[in-house]
Amino acid sequence: MTAEQVRSLARARAPIVLLHPEDRFRPMSPDAFVVDSRLRMYDRRQQAHMPLHPVLNLRTREWTKPPAVRALMGPDFFNPPLDLLGSLALHEDGTNRRPFDGKAASRRNVFLEHRQKNPRGEEDPTGHATTFYYWKSIGDGDGLLTFWFFYGYSRYQAVPLFGHQGDWEHVSLVLDGNGRVRGAYFAAHGRPRRIDADDLEMVDGRTVVYSAKESHASYPTRGKHADGDETSEGQRWETWRSLDALSVQEWRHFAGAWGAAGTVAATTGPLGPWYKRHRK
After folding, report:
1. CA distances from 68 to 45, 73, 248 (A)
2. Whole-number mean pLDDT of the chain?
3. 6-40 burial, b if ≥16 CB within 10 A, otherwise e?
4. Is the pLDDT of residue 249 over 90?
5. pLDDT digits (tens, 9 = 90+) for 39-65
6. Whole-prediction pTM
7. According to the model, what pLDDT value does residue 49 have?
């Protein structure tokens, strides 16, 4: 399937996402997140002292010890170039750069730190928060068309203290050779669940996805779910209004954390979608 064919299929099948009406942390574009973020290097010796982690001075391209707090808020530190992020890919041995990740290198791990502790995202994401798609062929013309959503902040309802900046969520549609939806995988906390086509809620040929309150896990229905998740019919996010291919993003190879480093993996920003793109 050509890139243009995939793009056309993605525009036709991009889902309707229904946000929880009480969710304070809305979708946003990762580019907008980067604009208001600093690039920092995780130093295990400074784990309990976030302000002391080295920060990249974008003017000199040098990692420096943080200057005074007022200077740290200046233009030399925010909005790292997207191609620079993309250059911070996996290490030669295949390890990534996300702090507290079980597959991360032992040193020189990095993270993006947003200027707001809890970024709120777009009040109205339709047309403003970009959704990213990725096509994976599974034989005989069939394939998985995955849609990735980004949120500025995520909080687990079952354990509210386990929140973190940055949140990548996704849903994968199972399509036959004619582009018809045969099912979907809904990702919720790393545990994808297959739902057959007959059990999907569809509107005008589009799959309806319910985004859980503040955790943003994806579900096919409204109501109460595992892990304290709750979905309801709130604002409608029409994801096809701003859609782009994951494969052409300058930042896609960034192997650090999309969000500040916490004290454990659950409070640290996630790894980006490029390294999870073959999952369901």
Report:
1. 20, 9, 37
2. 92
3. beebbeebbbbbbbbeebebbbbbbebbbebbbbb
4. yes
5. 999 987 665 556 678 999 999 999 988
6. 0.94
7. 55
